[in-house]
Amino acid sequence: MSGVLHVLLHMAEHEGPVTSEVLAKAMSTNPVVVRRVMAGLREQGYVRSTKGHRGGWELARRLEEISLRDVYEALGRPSFFAMGNRNNESTCLVERAVNAALDQTLSDAEALILARLDTVTLAMLSAEFHAGLPKDERDAEVCHAV
Prior knowledge:
Elements: H1 2-13, H2 20-27, H3 31-43, E1 47-50, E2 56-59, H4 68-74, H5 93-119, H6 122-131
Antiparallel strand pairs: 1-2
Helix pairs in contact: 2-3, 4-5
């Protein structure tokens, strides 16, 4: 998710479409992975693609219209947590009690995270990034990812 947010913000700074190859370099991945990820964002109407010599990906909505939760949902709701139950089908009463406690705790934590992601837009991240730039660098690209 972090890599996708990174390239979306770079795309907002870039005039015109950005190729999958360029985005792949920014995300340290393969262009095929970028196309797969961007396809999910395109299906939700957050990006669009154009084919041809000057083709590539570009934002389809204003940054104010895209929340971090929107991006999370478009990416297929990846898991927030690497921990979980050791065995979901246990007959052991102790393990079942542990599972129930963990399930409830993780569910509560996920609800809090989703609520927070709803309140943050790409425009807010862009404003924060621009505010942190030294005055003489505001028109320069901060990192050369895109």
